[in-house]
Amino acid sequence: MVWKKMVLIVLCHLLVMVASVDRNNFKTCEQSSFCRRLRSLEPQTSEFEVLPQSLQQFKQYVTLTLAHQRTKHEYVLKLACVKGGGSFHMQVDEKQPLSVRYRVQDALVQEPQYGPTKVESTSGTLIMVACGEGNGVKAGIQVAPFKVDFFQQGKLVVTANGKGMMRFEHLRHKPEPKAEQNAEGQEEPVQNDGEQAEQADEPPADDPGAWEENFKSHHDSKPKGPQGLALDFTFPQAKVLFGIPEHADTFALRHTATKGTDPYRLYNLDVFEYELNNGMALYGSVPVVYGHGETSTSAVFWLNAAETWVDVFSTNRDTDVVSSLVNLVSWNSHTEPPAANFISESGIMDVFVLLGPGPTDAFRQYTDLTGKGPLPQLYAIAYHQCRWNYNDERDVEMVSAKFDEHDIPMDTMWLDIEYTDGKRYFTWDHHKFPHPVEMIRNLTDLGRHLTIIIDPHIKRDSGYFFHNECTDRGLYVKNKDGGDYEGWCWPGAASYVDFFSPDARRHYADQYLLENFREQSETVGIWNDMNEPSVFNGPEVTMLKDNVHHGGLEHRDVHNLYGHMQLIATFDGLLRRGNGRLRPFILTRSHFAGSQRYAAVWTGDNMADWGHLQASIKMCLSLSVAGISFCGADVGGFFGNPDGELFSRWYQTGAFQPFFRSHAHIDTKRREPWLFPEDVKLVIRDAIRKRYRLLPFWYTMFYEHERSGLPIMRPLLAHYPTDANAFAIDHQYMLGDQLLVAPVLDLKQQRSREVYFPTRADGQGDWWYDCDTYHKHTGTGVEAIPVDNYKVPVFQRGGTILPTKERIRRASTLMKHDPYTLTVALDREGRAKGTLYIDDELSYEYRRGHYLYLEFEFRDGVLSSRKIDTTATYQTDTWLERVVIVGLGKVPTAATLYTDASGAATRRLELERVGDVVTVRKPGVLMLDAWSIKLDF
After folding, report:
1. Which distant-in-sequence residues (6+ apart) come within 8 Å of 58 by Cβ?
2. Domain hosting residue 511, numbered range
3. Which residues are catalytic?
4. Which of 418, 553, 819, 850 stands 20 to 30 A from 883 (CA)?
C-alpha cells in the first residue's frame, strides 16, 4: 500500500505538471492569515510613536524606543550608517520579547560594517541623524506619528512608514479559554476575545488563522502564535519600482495595492509551468526593491527569510503599459510617488536603505552587503546541453560526438535524476552507467565537462548509506514533535537534510569529496534542484512551517533560506574536493539574497512558447539587479515541443544571457540541434558560435562583476537614468555598458525588430554599431531593424572596445591559447576604451595576482594597451590577431606598431578597408606586452 501511495503521488505530480500550474495549490493573500491581517491598501495615521527621552547615542549607531499608542507595547529602533557611505541599517525588534525573534543569518557577506553615526539635532518632534563621512546622507526620525525620512544630498529619496502601514505583532501567550454557563447552567469554554484584543497590535483577534491555520488538508500549529510585521517605503523621487525577484512578470513592478489583486509574493515554491504576468511566488526570493527616477535611484533591502508579500503602489496604474514589447511610457507627475509595503510572517524588521544616488551606486551598495558573484571557470559561461534525461553512457557519448559531427561547440553535458541508483544521490545506476569515471574522462579528454543533479531530499531506504548516516547522526529536519520529517518527492518517501545544522552541512559537503563519492572527478559540476524545498505532499508543495531546524529554528522563519543553505554546503564540498584550487560550478533553482556567492540560477520550469521566451529577459533582468548576474532560462522551454522558429530564436536569445543551457522535460521530443531541419540547425549553430566568439568579452564581464558588483545583464536605465522612456523597457537590455541586445522575441518580428536607442542626459544619443554589419545608428528613439532568420540585433556602443576570439573550437577549453581580435567602435569624439581579462580560466590563482587585466584606449589616432593592475602578472602566449576600427572620419594610409619602452617604431602593419571599416591585420604582439598602434592619415 505504501508503494502504491508513493506512485500515485508522483504520478499526480507529473500530471499536474503537464496540465500547467494549479493555482488552487498555492495561497492567495486572503488565504494567508498574516497577509490578510496586516495588509493595508490606504494610507493611515500610524499608531507607533518615538519616545524621545529614550534616545541613546553610540559612536556607530543610535537607539530609540518605539511605542504602540494603543497597546503601549515597546520596541527598540536601531539606526546606523553603513561604512562606505550611502546606506543606512535600520532594525526594529521587541524590547522584551517572550522569546528571541529570528534574525537572518548567512545571507550577508559579512556582518554590517558601520561608520560614524551622530545625532545632528533633536527636538520634541524630529531627530536628525547624519553619517559622519561628509556625504550628505541623513535620516530624519519623526516622533509622532513615527516615520523616517532618508536624504541624499538634501534630497528626500526614501520614507519609511510614510503611509502609516507599520505593523508589528508582538509575541504573546495564547489566551486561555474562558468558561461561561450555558442555558442549562453548565460551563462551556469560549475564547477570551476581549482580552486578546486589548493585547494585540491589530484588532482582528478573532482571526481564525492567528493561532493555528489550515490550508487544504494541512495544519500549521503556530506554536508562537501571530508574529507578523509590515512596513511601507515610499520613493519620492522615483517613477518606477523594480526588483523583488523571482516572478514571471514585467521588470517594472505593477500596481498591486488594489482590492482583488494579490501583492507580489516572496516564498520559495516548486511551481511547474508557471503562469506569466503575475506576482505568484516562484523558486527564489530576493527581498530588495529599487525606486528610480530621472534624478535619483534608491533601494530598500528587507532582510527577512519568512513568507513575505509586497504590495506595490505604482505611479502608473495601467498594467499593460510596461508589458508591451515596444512601448514608451508617459509618466504622470501628479500622482503619488511609488511605494512598496513589505509584509512578513515572522522575524524582525531588518532593513537596509540604499540611497544611491545613481542606479549603479545602488547596485553596488546592495552587492557590498550580500556579495559579488565569483568568477566562474570559463567553460561554465559557454554552452551547456541538458535534458531529463540522457539515457545511458552510449547516449552521452553519441550526443557529444554529434556536436562534433555538426561542428557545433558545446562544453558541458548534463545528467538529470535518472543517472542515480533509484534516486539515491551520490550513487550511479550501474546498469545504465557502468563506467561513470571513464565516461567523465572521455568528455574531459575532448575538453568537455559533466554536470550531475543532486537534490536535498534523501530516499528513506534502510539500504541507502546516506539515509542511514543522516538518521543515526540526527541530521534531518524534524517535525513539530521531534521526529525526522518525512515527505514525498522523486524517490518516494524522503527526508530532508537540515542545512541549518553545521554538522549536517559538513557531513553533506563531505559526500562530494573524491574519497567518499568515488565515481566522479574534481571537474564535475553540480546541479541543486528541488531545493525550495519541494515536497509533493506538503502544503503548497513544500515543507510544513512548524517543522523544526537545528537550534530550535522554526521552518517558517527560515523557509526562503533553505536552498541557500544547501548551496553553502555544496560549495564547501566542491571547494574541498578540488583542494581549494578549482572554482566550483553549481546551478541552483532556489535562491535568496547572497546566493550569487555560490551558484548560478536558472528560471525553472518554463514552457516552449513565445511568452516564456520574452519572460526570460524580464526575469533575468530582475535577478541581475538583485545581485544574481549568473542567470539564464531553459533554452527552448522545459515543457512542450518548440517549433523550429521558436527554438532558433530562443537559442539566439540565450546566447546573449549569462547562463546558456538547453534543457527539456522527459516527456518532450528529443531536441538536439541536428534533429531539426537543416535550415534551423544552421541558425542554432550560428547562434552558439556567436556565444563562443564573444567569450573573452563575457569572461571579462564576469571578472569585473566580481570586482564591482555591477550586473552583467543590465536594464537600459542603468546607463540612461534620465531617459524616462527607457525605465520600463524589458524586451531589450545591455551587457555591461558595451552591447545593446534586442533579440527577436515574437512571431511578428520575423522581418523587422523595433529597437529603442536611448537618450543621454545631454539630450543626445550614443552612436551604436550593428555588430554584424557595423552600420552606425546615430539617432534616438525607436528604429525598425531589418532581420532575417540569422539576425540577432546587437549593437556595440560607440566609445567601447570589444575583445573577441574568431577561431571557434569544439569547446571553450580548447580556445585558451587562441589569438584575440579587438573591435574599436569610436564615439563622436573619435575615442574608445575597453578592457580584457586573462587568467588560467579554472583556478583561484587569479586571487594571488596571477592574471592580466588590460585597458585598451584609442584617441588621436593611436590604439594603446596598458596593465590596469600593474603588480599582477600572468604568462600567456596569446596574441593580437587583428584590430577592427569603425567610425573613423577619414581613412588611414598606414599603421605603425610600437612595442618597446623607447617609443621607437617596430614595424609597419597591413591595413585593409571595406566600406567604413578599417582592419589592421596581424599586429602579432603578445597580449602581456605593452604596445601601441599609430594610424597615419
Report:
1. 117
2. 455-577
3. 529, 605
4. 850
